[in-house]
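User: Predict the complex with S-adenosylmethionine.
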Amino acid sequence: MASREWSTPPEVVDSDPGRDELEELEVELLLEAIYRRYGFDFREYARASLKRRLWRRMTAEHLQTLSQLQDRLLHDPQCMERLLLDLSINVTSMFRDPSFHVAFREKVVPLLHTYPFTRIWCAGCSTGEEVYSLAIVLQEEGLYERTRIYATDINEAVLDTAKAGVFPLDKMQQYTQNYIRAGGKHDFSEYYVAAYDGACFSRSLVENVVFAQHNLASDRAFNEFNVILCRNVMIYFDKTLQDRVHDLFYDSLETFGILALGHKESVGFTSHADGYEVVDQAERIYRKIT
Ligand SMILES: C[S@@+](CC[C@H](N)C(=O)[O-])C[C@H]1O[C@@H](n2cnc3c(N)ncnc32)[C@H](O)[C@@H]1O
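Assistant: Here is the predicted structure with S-adenosylmethionine placed in the model:
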């Protein structure tokens, strides 16, 4: 019988996983490596868009394989910073989905008027446009003085932008339209001053805002809230991670607290579906009832 020397176990050498299987293996190892080295947990992010972003980073780093990307990530924290920006999909805008803000004014604001003080968690706030929009609504509705907003995101870099509150001036036309359609009560330009190509928003809008890094995939609840806004974040998570985040929100909301999700998100089909009543189905606004 011909003898053969194995430097690696035969099952590994002999197996010929298809390209997709091999890629999946590389993705799993890479995500595990990121988790163990940096604590960022992307293991349960929806795979298709995650893979696209990993490939984009791999190409941008002039690497041939995801395994090479893993090696670089492990040894170069700056490469991890770059990947974090790729993975955290920060698309946002002021008064995004104006109809949501109309519903918030009409259906949530009256409830908040019944509380002496309101704690709001804006989870996955990205560069802050959502937080400034919310602060404007609360100011116009006479609630801001007795509100604290906790604005969190996994990504420190976007939080720095959020804290600075300077957004591109060329976006202001679109944001003004959104603001009007969202039921804005003033002239939108009252909230910012133009400086070069930036619009610097009034510091009064962030007086009652605490910005902090928080990872929905691995960090715990840190307060009890009357309102949680988590819009357009969970669409990037797989079912397991969505369930985890729903547990977290359910535990973090006071009874009768409000949960507001993005247009493509829902509490339906989660283990907490019966724990909420619908405040506005189209705008994905729910109220905790048990
Ligand atoms: C598409 S933006 C949504 C921003 C804003 N909520 C909106 O609706 O316009 C998604 C945000 O979720 C953040 N994010 C992604 N994974 C996260 C996690 N595990 N924990 C906290 N934030 C996360 C991203 O960094 C990004 O800023």
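The mean pLDDT is 92.
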